[in-house]
Automatic annotation (TrEMBL):
Ranges for region Disordered: 164-188
Sequence ranges of Polar residues compositional bias: 167-178
The protein's name in its UniProt record: Calcineurin-like phosphoesterase domain-containing protein
InterPro entries assigned to the protein according to its UniProt record, in alphabetical order: Metallo-depent_PP-like, UPF0046_metallophosphoest
Biased segments, Acidic residues type: 179-188
Length: 188
């Protein structure tokens, strides 16, 4: 957000824009349990100059290490290397923009049923490694115009749970809101 936008929110008594959300769960290094399905969200990416940036290597791996094992659906901003990450946009000249540290985390430790991400606008679609289905759910082009429809997938509710359960629980793996260090400092 621009300084002007933040100043406007501050005048309204809002220090963080996500505090205004009332009908969704903001997943920043958080796990959300719904009907027995574990969903974890992490916004980190290795693209300098934007919020939630961490450099490739140990800095971003430190963030991926927060993802708990046995997650059913992993939601990240950036793709893992080799899945929906071919960047044909003219400024990138065919670079594979995915994160190798994220790929290793997903394939060797977390092993989710689904890994949903965006970031690479032109690679909308799904791939699989035989266990995890990787879904690039980006719907906009580089000018933020809607260019693709949504991707819808079904996932079975775990044994002992049903979609008629009245209670949904939220469990945090780190904290209920992002810390100052984790928001959009853009460095590390």
């Amino acid at each position: 957000m621009t300084e002007r936008q933040l100043a406007g929110l501050s005048m309204l008594g809002v220090s963080k824009p996500y505090e205004m959300l009332t009908n969704c769960t903001y997943l920043v290094d958080r796990e959300f349990d719904v009907y027995g399905l574990k969903i974890y969200g992490a916004p980190w990416h290795p693209m300098p100059g934007y919020s939630f940036y961490r450099s490739r290597g140990q800095a971003i791996l430190h963030k991926w290490n927060n993802i708990p094992p046995k997650v059913d659906v992993l939601v990240t901003h950036t793709p893992p290397l080799g899945h929906g990450d071919y960047n044909a946009w003219n400024k990138c000249d065919g670079v594979l923009a995915g994160c190798a540290e994220l790929l290793n985390t997903v394939e060797f430790r977390v092993k989710p049923k689904y890994h949903v991400f965006g970031h690479i606008h032109d690679m909308h679609g799904a791939t699989s490694n035989g266990y995890t289905t990787f879904v690039n759910a980006a719907i906009c082009d580089h000018k933020l115009r809607v260019d693709h429809g949504p991707i819808i997938f079904d996932i079975s509710v775990p044994y002992g749970h049903s979609k008629t359960e009245s209670e949904q629980s939220i469990s945090d793996t780190t904290s209920s809101v992002p810390s100052e260090e984790d928001s959009d400092s853009g460095s590390t």
